[in-house]
Every structure is written in structure tokens, then in C-alpha cells.
Specification:
- By secondary structure, the protein is mainly β.
- It has 1 helix and 29 strands.
- The strands form 7 sheets. The protein has a 5-stranded antiparallel β-sheet, with no helix packed on it. Strands 3-4-5-6 form a 4-stranded antiparallel β-sheet, with no helix packed on it.
- A hairpin with a 4-residue loop joins strand 23 and strand 24.
- The longest helix is centred in the first third of the chain and has 4 residues.
Length: 407
């Protein structure tokens, strides 16, 4: 284990940028409690940030293609850093960190390459099951894993069958398969589930987007609710307008499904190709849309939206009901739930940070930093109600550093 306690506190005014003059002035857009970076060496990309009780688990990749974990508190103070032997292998479809989960027994579960690795909050590995579950199909893209009924797990994503079909697989605590369900709306469409929420009655709400050659459903999203045993309760299909879905040979757009209020859920879907925006859609537990679809456009005075654009929405809800989200420019991809950029940041990458009000549709947006290439790959609600955004920045144009901002 390697502990690193050094960090730098950046001057906020030097990092935040002015906004497009067509938007509301962003003076109070972030109102950050702190902005910090960390001195870890050979950082390539931050894969994800996972909030727990008073802490946040950061998962990042280094130049030797190994994953490392960093635990910080809600103020961004580093507690410890652990270097692992989990190696990302691009030629093995499942060889990536698929999910990190804080569980009720006080341990943290890391899913990697179909295995389950468990850690305590001191950073010590206490259990290793390298073949925890077996996927029912050969070509499966795991996009998310959540804790389901009776403490088991529900894995969602896509499976390669006559194209790509949305997939949900249930496992118990011992890794035994409980159910497998494949979902598609049209015979020739390409489907994937990317967001999931467990409801109070133990059922699961799944959301995903898809493309189809059917004119009315060329770009759409769908919501499915399944019982604890995997039985399909319903599937609701909704079309979107002026939205380009991902082409057949790419990762699927859309990642985050969050609860924003009583019986109200928000799902973010990314544009593709020449469409530089995210679409925010809202629906209830029955899959019915509850508000007009909203478009969040990449807005910057000096930056263009790169091709291909960002895949893997990062959004988080604030206590005032607003949404914090990110659009990035110019990306490559790492497989898994993240769909994130890899180094080097050439051509330059820039993150566009926004805050959107669900009540009056007010939009504030600004570049996160205009001096150095940066990429924000996580936005999470902390246990104290604050929001943390996290990613990497090309510090002084030379070294990649993990950076976080607490709002």
C-alpha cells in the first residue's frame, strides 16, 4: 500500500472560466468548497468516483495499465492510496473495473473481470473471488452493476445477439445466476441498458437508449421495470428528436439514471457525431415521461465539440433540485460503465461544466479550465449533500493529475 498525503489547493479564480455570453453569468455556478489535485505519478485517467458515508472512492488507471484506488473524505483530504494488480487489458472484453459499491456490511466491493474483490475502509483486501460470476453469453458489455433485492446484484448492459440487445442479469451474494433477461424494442435496433435504480418494493427501474432503422424510433430511449426475480413488469418506449444515437460500431450513449424527487427520475443521453449536446429526460416509476425533454448544449467561447464526442454522461443532483453535469470534447474510450478518455490529451480536451434547474430551466455553463487540457469523468452527490466533480488535468501541460472540485 502506498499512502500519499500531498495535495495542492488551486486558486479557484485561476481555474474557472467565463461563460458564453449567451448564458446566465456563471459567477455562482460552482461556488466551490474546495478544488484539489493529487501528486500521484503516471496517472492516465480517472475511471470513476463512488461516494460512501463521509468518503469517496476514486478509481484511476496508470500508464502501466493497472488500476489504483484512492480514498478521500468529503472535503477532498486524502486518506490512503492503494496500488492493485488489476490490469486493464484491451484485448479481453471484461478486463476492466466494472463497478465499485459501498455495501451495508461496511466493506467495499470492486467488480473486475467477472471477479469480486472486497476491501475494508483501511484499504486492505479482505476477499478475492476472481471468478465470482459467469456471464451467460460470450460478448457482453457490462455498463452498470447495482445491489438488488436481498442484497444480490443486478448487472446491466448489452449482449451481442443479432446485433446488440439490452441485457439484465441477476446474481445472488454467492455469484449464482438468478435470472437473465434480454430486451429489444425493434428487430433491427441496437439496444443497451446503462442506468438502473432499485425501488422501495425491491423492483428495479432500468433505462437505456437505442438506435433503430424504423423511422419513428431512429433515436429513442426506453424504460423497463423488472421484479426481484427478473420478470418484466413493463417496458415503455419514448422517441427523441434532433438526437443522433451512437452508430452501430460504438459504445452506447447514456449512463446516469438518478432520482430527483418523489416518483421522478432523470436520465441523461449523449448526442453523437455533429450533435454536441446531452438530452435530459424525466419519467416516473411507471416509465411515463413527467416533463419536456431538455437539451444541454456544449457551450464554449473558444472550444469546439470534438468528434467523436463524450460517451458516458456524468450528472448529479443538488439539494436545491438543480442538476450538475459535464460535457467533454475530443475523446478516446475505455470500455465499461465509464466510457472515458485515455491519454494523451492530444488534441486538447476541455470539459464544459453546467448547472441546470429542473424547475425554471435556467442554464449556467462554463469551461472548467481554459489553460490546460482537462477531462471530468465523474459527478456524484456526497453523503453531506454537496456534489463532487472529478477527473484529470494536464498539470502545467506536462503531467496528468487527478483533480476534484467540491460544490
Amino acid at each position: 500500500m502506498k499512502a500519499v498525503f500531498r495535495h495542492m489547493v488551486f486558486i479557484v479564480a485561476g481555474l474557472l472560466a467565463a461563460c458564453d455570453t449567451g448564458l446566465v453569468a456563471p459567477d455562482n455556478l460552482l461556488d466551490p468548497v474546495a478544488i484539489r489535485s493529487y501528486d500521484d505519478e503516471d496517472v492516465v485517467v480517472l475511471a470513476d468516483a463512488t461516494p460512501g458515508d463521509g468518503v469517496v472512492w476514486l478509481t484511476y488507471l496508470t500508464n502501466d495499465n493497472y488500476y489504483h484506488f484512492k480514498l478521500i473524505d468529503n472535503e477532498g483530504n486524502e486518506i490512503w492510496t492503494v496500488h492493485t494488480d488489476m490490469q486493464y487489458l484491451s484485448n479481453i472484453r471484461s478486463a476492466y473495473v466494472q463497478k465499485v459499491i459501498f455495501e451495508e456490511d461496511g466493506l467495499v466491493t470492486v467488480f473486475f473481470n467477472n471477479g469480486r474483490f472486497r476491501y475494508n475502509l483501511s484499504g486492505e483486501e479482505v476477499l478475492r473471488e476472481e471468478e465470482f460470476f459467469q456471464l451467460p453469453y460470450t460478448i457482453v458489455d457490462v455498463r452498470n452493476i447495482i445491489v438488488g433485492a436481498q442484497g444480490g446484484y443486478v448487472l446491466i448492459g448489452a449482449v451481442s445477439i443479432a446485433g446488440m440487445r439490452a441485457l439484465a442479469v441477476g446474481f445472488d451474494r454467492e455469484g449464482n445466476e438468478l435470472f437473465t433477461r434480454i430486451f429489444s424494442v425493434t428487430a433491427n435496433g441496437r439496444h443497451a441498458y446503462t442506468g438502473a435504480q432499485v425501488l422501495e418494493d425491491g423492483t428495479c427501474l432500468l433505462a437505456g437508449s437505442y438506435t433503430s432503422p424504423v423511422a419513428a424510433l431512429m433515436n429513442a430511449f426506453f424504460v423497463t421495470r423488472i421484479a426481484p426475480d427478473g420478470a418484466e413488469l413493463f417496458t415503455q418506449v419514448h422517441s427523441t428528436t434532433e438526437f443522433h444515437g451512437a452508430p452501430a460500431n460504438t459504445w452506447y450513449p447514456g449512463r446516469d439514471l438518478i432520482k430527483t424527487g418523489h416518483d421522478n427520475y432523470l436520465f441523461a443521453i449523449d448526442g453523437w457525431g455533429s450533435k454536441p449536446f446531452q438530452r435530459l429526460v424525466q419519467f416516473d416509476a411507471m416509465g411515463n415521461e413527467t416533463a419536456d425533454q431538455q437539451v444541454i448544449e456544449f457551450r464554449s467561447e473558444t472550444r469546439s465539440y470534438g468528434l467523436p464526442p463524450f460517451i458516458g454522461s456524468v450528472i448529479a443532483g443538488r439539494p436545491d433540485g438543480s442538476i450538475v453535469g459535464v460535457l467533454n470534447s475530443n475523446q478516446w474510450f475505455l470500455p465499461g460503465a465509464q466510457g472515458i478518455a485515455t491519454a494523451p490529451y492530444m488534441p486538447p480536451h476541455y470539459a464544459n461544466l453546467y448547472q441546470f434547474s429542473l424547475s425554471d430551466h435556467t442554464l449556467n455553463a462554463a469551461d472548467f479550465n481554459r489553460l490546460y487540457s482537462n477531462y471530468l469523468s465523474a459527478a456524484v452527490r456526497l453523503s453531506n449533500g454537496n456534489v463532487m466533480i472529478a477527473g484529470t488535468i494536464l498539470s502545467l501541460g506536462a503531467d496528468m493529475k487527478i483533480i476534484i472540485a467540491i460544490l
